């Protein structure tokens, strides 16, 4: 899609009429920031799916892994010492 100089000028004039000259810098800034975030996310996604990149190593300390206190062999609340399926 090739836009000539006249087409760009007409588009800018329509934008000025629709939004007003005072809001155009704010809108342009917002669009610019959005494009920057979008490009960053696309780059990160491309880096994550690149097969030539070695996988990141997980933290080996295990400090971020929550420890479970559940023990399947110990009696739990509601256990009455009998099989619950034979009622």
Query: What is the string of SSEs from the N terminus onward?
Result: HH
> How many runs of DSSP E, i.e. beta strands?
0
Classification by helices and strands: mainly alpha
Estimate what percentage of residues fall within beta strands. under 5%
The end-to-end distance, rounded to whole angstroms, is: 75 Å
Report the sheet with the most strands, covering strand number, pairing sense and barrel closure: none
Give the mean pLDDT: 76
Q: Could you characterize the architecture of this molecule?
A:
The protein is mostly helical and 87 residues long. It has a domain at 22-49. The protein has two helices and no strands. The radius of gyration is 30 Å and the shape is elongated. GO terms for molecular function: protein transmembrane transporter activity. It holds the Pfam family TatA_B_E. Its main location: membrane. Belongs to the TatA/E family.
How would the blueprint of this fold be written?
Blueprint: H1 5-19, H2 24-48
Summarize this structure as a short list of keywords or feature phrases.
about 90 residues; mainly alpha; about 0% strand
């Amino acid at each position: 899609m090739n836009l000539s100089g006249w087409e760009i000028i007409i588009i800018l004039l329509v934008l000025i009429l629709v939004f007003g000259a005072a809001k155009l810098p704010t809108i342009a800034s917002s669009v610019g920031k959005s494009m920057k975030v979008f490009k960053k996310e696309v780059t990160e996604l491309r880096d994550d799916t690149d097969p030539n990149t070695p996988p990141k190593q997980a933290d080996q300390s295990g400090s971020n892994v929550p420890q479970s206190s559940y023990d399947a062999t110990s009696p739990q609340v509601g256990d009455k010492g009998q099989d619950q399926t034979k009622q």
